[in-house]
Structures are given as C-alpha cells and as structure tokens.
Amino acid sequence: MKIIAMNLFNVAIIGATGAVGQEMLRVLTERKFPLQRIRCFASPQSVGKKLNETTTVESLSEGCFKNIDIALFSAGKKISLAYIPQALNEGCLVIDNSSAYRMDSEVPLVIPEINLHTIKDHRLIASPNCTASMITMALFPLHQRVKIRRIVVTTYQAASGAGHRAMVELMEETKAMLEHRPYQRTVMPQPYGFNLFPHNAPMTPSHYNDEEVKVIEETRKILSEPSLRIGVTCVRVPVLRAHSIALNVEFTSPLSATDAKKTLEQSPGIKVLEEWENNRFPMPLDATEQNEVFVGRIREDCSQPNTLDLWVVGDQLLKGAALNAIQIAESLTGFAPSRGAEEDASCPAS
C-alpha cells in the first residue's frame, strides 16, 4: 500500500526527547529511511536541546508542520488531540502512537504484518498499544489457521512502558534499596524496586484498569473480531525494558502445539525460542533492542480442549511502539529497508 510517491521525505517526530521518540529517531537512521530532513519537537523545557549534530529540539507552533510529509506523534494523548488536526490541515500524513484515535472507527489501527490493507487512502493512522501489538503479533497467524474463541492474558510490563523517567526511577530506587536508604518516588505510585503491582493505569468503573481496557478493545479491532472474548490482568514488574505476556488461547477446533509452533516459525516478525531440555524460553533480556516478538513455551492446556498456552516477550519501545510506527511509514512510502539494515537492527546489543 503506497500513498506517497516521492524519493526523499521530510519527517517530524513529536515527543522526540521521550523514550519512544528517541527510538524513532534511532530506528529511522538505522533502517536508512529516505530522509530529506528530520525535525524534532518536544516540550518547552527541551527546546534548544541538541539530539545529534544536525538536530535541535523545536517547539510546536502554528505552521510548524508546513512542508512536513510525515509526522510521527509520540507525546501522549493530550498533545495528539491538540496538534494532529493542525498537522493534517497543514498537509501531513500522521502516524499517531498515542491512544487518542485508536478506537476511532474512521482511523485504522495498524500493524503492517496483520492489517496493512486497512490504511487505504487514510491520512491519519494509529499505532497500537504496546501490549496489544505483541499479543496480536503472536495470535494473528494462529487465528488465521484456526479461529480463536477466547483469550486469557496476563502481562508482566516493564518500566519502559511508563517512559524514560520510570526507567530512571526504577534504577535509582533499586540502588537506594540496596544501599538501605530512603527514596522518594515521583513516577510510580507504589514501591517498584524488588516489587510488582497491578498496572498503575487509572481504574475504570468495570474494575478493569485503562491499560487492560486498551488491550481488550485494540486486540479486537486489530483482529477484526469485535466480539472476541478476552480476559486480561496487567502487572507492572521491575524490569527496565521489554514486556512479557502469558497467553491462554482457546480455539474453535483443535490446534496442536506442534502445528502452532510451525505456523509461528513461518510468520514475519516472530522468533520462536524454545529449549525444553534446558527449561529455556524467551526473557526480557532476549527481546531488548530486538525487532522481533519472541514466542516460546507453546504447549497444550491440559485443563480443557482446543486450548494452548504461549509465552510472549517483546521490546515495548520497538515493535510495541517506535518500530511499528516506522514500518507503517515505510509501507506508505513504498520504502523497504535494505537487508543489511534489517540484519543490523536484529543483532543483539553488545
């Protein structure tokens, strides 16, 4: 699906100093996206900050999106609602990483490996919640094979999902605990070092928190299954980067663990990691700074028929956010990263 026919592109990142914004800047360069110019916008406190030799943080203002081809928003729902209409009016194609438009029936919610066809001629495309992205990456190939009836999800979400400040707070609080000194938290509502707690997203009247509601609603929209039964519990764990997810998946008819594994091994963006003899399966350290979503411990649920258990791990900042948005941009422009760029992006961090 190609919407823009150009050779080089002017790209803007809104929220460029945040954890996802920084990854967007890195991934654009790493994948050799055909940039004419890149402009970075952030909060007034960051204006003037140098992000590299050629890029300085700018402030959002009237007319700032003129001559921008693609605007990547990752500054939160409030900023998206305030500035995306302006960006669209000034001629941008917008890819939004916030929750602002995800459930808007007029806005496609896109994972390129799953539902790129929904983009059509839209000028505003939403990128999903990080957890929903990883869940659907693992489930979509299986759902294509045998239709899913019900999913029970338990997540183990890293500090990266709450942004750079949460990652710093986890490190500082853990160090303080090891040194037996007090620490004053400013990001997380509960002790985080050596601790875990139900996800800190706001609670809704249903007694599901906002993160859990996003997972349910967005998974249904991505899979085009508005009535899919989903139960979810989201948990914040003291891991810096990369979310882990336990999935219990009931299908409408039998699907063996062997066939599920073969299907996932052939699916783009998925890496199966299973060493049963060593009790070795995907961990956050495996997925950190990796483009793929890792799946392992694929097994049949002995408590009921037609049901599999899966363990899924992915880098929240990459396929859960920055990478997915840039893959959408690549699809819209017809750009395909070189084989070398793809391989470099998948190499373990040294």
Question: What can you see in these coordinates?
Answer:
With 350 residues, the protein is α/β, with parallel strands linked by helices. The chain folds into 2 domains: 9-100 and 319-346, NAD(P)-binding Rossmann-like Domain (Rossmann fold, 3-Layer(aba) Sandwich), CATH 3.40.50.720; 132-316, Dihydrodipicolinate Reductase, domain 2 (2-Layer Sandwich). Helices cover 32% and strands 21% of the residues. Strands 8-9-7-10-13-12-11 form a 7-stranded mixed sheet. Strands 3-2-1-4-5-6 form a 6-stranded parallel sheet, with helices on both faces. Strand 4, helix 2 (77-89) and strand 5 form a beta-alpha-beta unit. Helix 1 packs across helix 9 and helix 4 (130-145) packs parallel to helix 6 (210-223). The relative contact order is 0.16.
